[in-house]
Structure formats: structure tokens, C-alpha cells
Design brief:
This protein is of the alpha+beta class. It has helices spanning 7-14, 17-22, 53-69; strands at residues 25-30, 33-39, 45-47, 50-51, 77-87, 95-105, 109-120, 123-137. The strands form 2 sheets. It has a 6-stranded antiparallel sheet with strand order 1-2-6-7-8-5, covered by helices on one side. Strands 3-4 form a two-stranded antiparallel sheet. It is globular and about 45 Å long. 36% of the residues are buried.
Length: 140
């Protein structure tokens, strides 16, 4: 399977100004899963070298909603209804990687789980985990 099997979903998400402002990229995107990346920039920080909570939460939301959208037909969209993020460790490093998978895909609502890791010279650390619930919107 290609790294980004759902180019339509990637194009939709990366067309959002907030995704562009964050610098979000996709590493993988296929049926029921999404892997995203966010390279550290000073704008993501509250102290030098560490990601602040908001970019971590945004990455989790985009990752989970993208995974959910891959379960819909081409042109379908998923709008976030709710997400909960639990911060587990300081996110000090060069980049974040979000790994999302669909837990349950329903007719109107989909739930995805996301783990967010921070990569640094010291290794890889799980810094947050999230549940993202989306409302499935059919193609127009």
C-alpha cells in the first residue's frame, strides 16, 4: 500500500489554513489509520525546545479525524464532535509523530484512538494519547 493511499483526504486536510500554519504533514494515510508529523518550531513552544499543549492536541485531532475520514467514501468528510487528550510526558524534542487508528466506524459517528510521540536525540517518548470522535458527513 502507498504511504498516502487516500490522497483526497490528505489534500482536504492540508488545504485547511490551520494545518498549513502548524506545518502538519502525512507520513501514512490509509483505510482506518493515519500517521502525521509536526516538526518543532519556536511557534509551537512555551519554552525552548518543548512543544506546548495546543499543537500536541491539534496534531491528535487532525490525526484521529483523518483516520476516521478514510473510512468514508471519496468526498466524504468527518467533523470533530469531541476529543480528549491526556498528556503523559513533556514533549521536548525535534518533532511529534501522531499514530491514529479507527476504534469503531459507525454510520454517523466514528471513534479513533491516537498516540502522540515526541522524537529527540534521547529517543522516542509517548507524550500524549487521545480519543477523537467525529461526525461522518456524506459527499455533497
Amino acid at each position: 500500500m502507498p504511504a498516502v493511499a487516500r490522497e483526497d483526504v490528505a489534500a482536504w486536510v492540508l488545504g485547511m489554513p490551520v494545518a498549513v500554519a502548524l506545518g502538519l504533514t502525512f507520513e501514512q494515510l490509509g483505510e482506518g489509520h493515519s500517521v502525521t508529523r509536526l516538526v518543532w518550531r519556536e511557534q509551537h513552544s512555551h519554552v525552548p525546545g518543548a512543544f506546548q499543549a495546543s499543537p500536541i492536541a491539534a496534531l491528535a485531532d487532525f490525526t484521529g479525524a483523518s483516520a476516521a475520514t478514510t473510512m468514508l467514501p471519496t468526498g466524504g468528510r468527518a467533523a470533530t464532535l469531541d476529543y480528549t487528550v491526556k498528556f503523559l510526558a513533556e514533549a521536548r524534542g525535534e518533532q511529534l509523530v501522531g499514530r491514529g487508528r479507527v476504534v469503531r466506524a459507525g454510520r454517523t459517528v466514528t471513534v479513533a484512538a491516537v498516540d502522540v510521540y515526541v522524537l529527540s536525540g534521547e529517543g522516542t517518548t509517548l507524550c500524549a494519547t487521545a480519543l477523537v470522535t467525529t461526525r461522518n458527513l456524506p459527499p455533497p
